[in-house]
Amino acid sequence: MIRRPPRSTLSSSSAASDVYKRQTRDALVQIFEDWQQFREDATPITRVRAVMDRLRTMPQSPERRQAMVTMVRTIGTPDRLACYLEMQLDSDLRYPEGTDEKYLVEKAKRYKTVSAFGHCHMALCKTDKDERAGTLGAPHHEWSLAFSVWKPVSSSFVESVTKRHLDNVLIEPPHKHPYEFASKIVKGSMRQSVYTLDSDGDKQAASSEERYKGVALTCVDGAWPPHEKREECWLRVELKAVSYTHLRAHETPEHLVCRLLLEKKKKTNKQKEQQQQNARKK
């Protein structure tokens, strides 16, 4: 068991982190309680965005990451997530055009992407882009609260660069995350591998023990075309597949690449036998 040290022994950074986490959690819980009690006058999406803006404008720091984690953990429970979707629907129906609440709901509705790999990404709330932010990883760049749905598939063309096939697993190709984010897996589990880009093919072939050993890939500049810069590269293992079932937070440097695997749980033989017995009884 890992015990929390007495509060008197915490560092100033830990104490500040606790304050930000508590303020974020309390503000979000109050939004949900007010909407349930005083729905006619509530503007929940506007208030959630205000919490996001406070976090977005904080300097990049462990305190900001902890506050991000707290926000995702607070909203990411199944009950609150379902309640938040009801909030969006209610605000969309009740508020007229020209109001901030309607604007935020419409803005979120426009941002939905579906991937060829079985991944559906839906925005729940978005901030406005800060034109002063020059790069994707800038502190005041546009932020979004999003809900992602993964549907594991048993076959996919994305495995063309691998040497074996995995059943009941959805595999997302290697990709970069040049920004920090926090996430919570509501149901299921996910494995993530982390690699470093390596331009030395011989060195890579000798150092790698994973599925991309000796496989030449093309590294491009950014996620969206047109790609002006292309170079051949290899992947060197930094972190082998780690399973996540709960929360994780990242501040991943641009030179790191991650690869996600979402596993579909198989029913055990005992579960199948129990289901068959119950069916016979009926």
Walk me through what this model shows:
36% of the residues lie in helices and 25% in strands. With 282 residues, the chain is an alpha+beta fold. The strands form three sheets. Strands 4, 5, 7, 8, 9 and 11 form a six-stranded antiparallel β-sheet that branches. The longest helix is centred in the first third of the chain and has 26 residues, at 12-37. The chain is globular.
Distance between the termini: 46 Å
What's the overall geometry? Answer: globular
- The low-confidence runs, each spanning 5 or more residues with pLDDT under 50, are 1-10, 156-165
Largest sheet: 6 strands, antiparallel
* Radius of gyration, taken over Cα atoms and rounded to an integer in Å: 22 Å
List the helices and strands and how they pair.
Blueprint: H1 12-37, H2 44-56, H3 62-75, H4 78-94, H5 100-110, E1 112-114, E2 119-126, E3 144-150, E4 169-171, E5 175-176, E6 180-184, E7 189-198, H6 201-207, E8 217-220, E9 230-244, E10 247-251, E11 256-263, H7 269-281
Antiparallel strand pairs: 1-2, 2-3, 4-11, 5-11, 6-10, 7-9, 7-11, 8-9
